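The following block was generated as part of the benchmark described in Methods. Ligand: fe (iii) ion.
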Amino acid sequence: LIALGIETSCDDTCAAVVTSDRRILSEVLRTQHHLHEPMGGIVPKLAHHAHMRNLPDVVKEAIQQAGLGERGIQEVDIIAVTRGPGLAHCLGVGLNAAKTLAAALNKPLIGVHHMEAHALTARLTTVDPNLVSEGQDGDSATTMTTSKGYVPAGSAPHPEFPFLTLLVSGGHTLLLVAHSVDRYTTLATTVDDSIGEAFDKCARQLDIPWLPGRAGGPGASLEEFAKSSQNPSRYLDQLPIPMSLRTNKRLMKFSFAGLKSAVTRIVDQEKASSPTGGMDEEKRRDLAAGFQHCAVTHLCQKVEQGLVDCHEQGMHISSLVISGGVGRNATLRSRMDEICSEFEYKDSSKSNRKASSKTKNTPQSVPTVALRTRRSVRVICPPPKLCTDNAVMIAWTGLERYQQGLVDPYDIDIVPKWPLDMLGTGVVPE
Ligand code: ATP
Ligand code: FE
């Protein structure tokens, strides 16, 4: 089966052609970062107009590059498109194009939930978290699955249901159980900012230079900037690890507002006490590293708790899938790998959690390669490039849904706000 996927939910215009036997035939992405970056955030009207300008060419290129047979686009079996959640006008551009194509070509249409797509990407292609770090994956728009770091189709273990999934992106911080295609339960979500927002705001606070030509936005720049911190513990006594007090340790909630405010407070104090009114680079690197450490530790603690909770409810979770833009972060990937490899199921009724030394408040350097073969919970990450928005994940999710008989009529509408738990209930929010 061959799927054409279209994604326009936010600020990237994407189209891709993917097969059910896990081949990415083409992948085209036109970014709008240059339009929004000077405005300090995404401007929906600009994004809408850019999608209208770019989508026809992007789809045309994806079809041409796929090298389909003689019948060209008629070789495509299904058309998948992001239906929600996302920016309403932007979603409309992609959905209308997909509906029109599907109707004209007489092909099945699959409206995809953007977050389900982030969660299912790992079933298309996965990579060991320790084998790929930022920048190795080739961020060009049309890299194929064979590029460095990708596990060739067929040789990688893909997560089987049920699996735990941590979706950490610009708009979401979600820990979910993926029971099957179309069925998810949220274990934890954020009560304030998303982790992506926290990285972005913190990067701005610390005046971290934008890395031109580098994918991943301010969060990726912060990660890079923090790498050369000489004293990552410098500010740790002033930075809280959210929700980690004894009373709310078991609370399944994420929160980043307090950590973000602590960063602001430290920056203000440092500036006030400096004769130049600035904060020197060494200290800014240390603060970036401290922030990243606390944010990642917070995620690790809740994932560990989630594993315990699932186990206590009799669910056997064998994989943790990390996806979404912040899932590109190498520190996050390796720390998750550490806690999951140390997590052991004792027997069917009780969990035996070995307290991970890595969750203590001491920053870690990123280990280079540590391929463990024996572990109770595997960490599975899509290649970094497929963690941020892309149409490959939409095409793949379209295929997974189609194979379960989930097809949509040609008159479906966009769903800008759409909790993932509502999938499979037959109810779609107005
Ligand atoms: P959503 O999927 O929730 O609608 P989105 O699609 O805008 O949100 P993504 O493209 O998945 O979000 O992720 C973008 C976010 O990921 C940004 O906040 C960016 O700063 C962050 N990010 C990207 N790379 C890294 C990294 N290496 N470390 C930390 N954060 C990162
Ligand atoms: Fe996304």
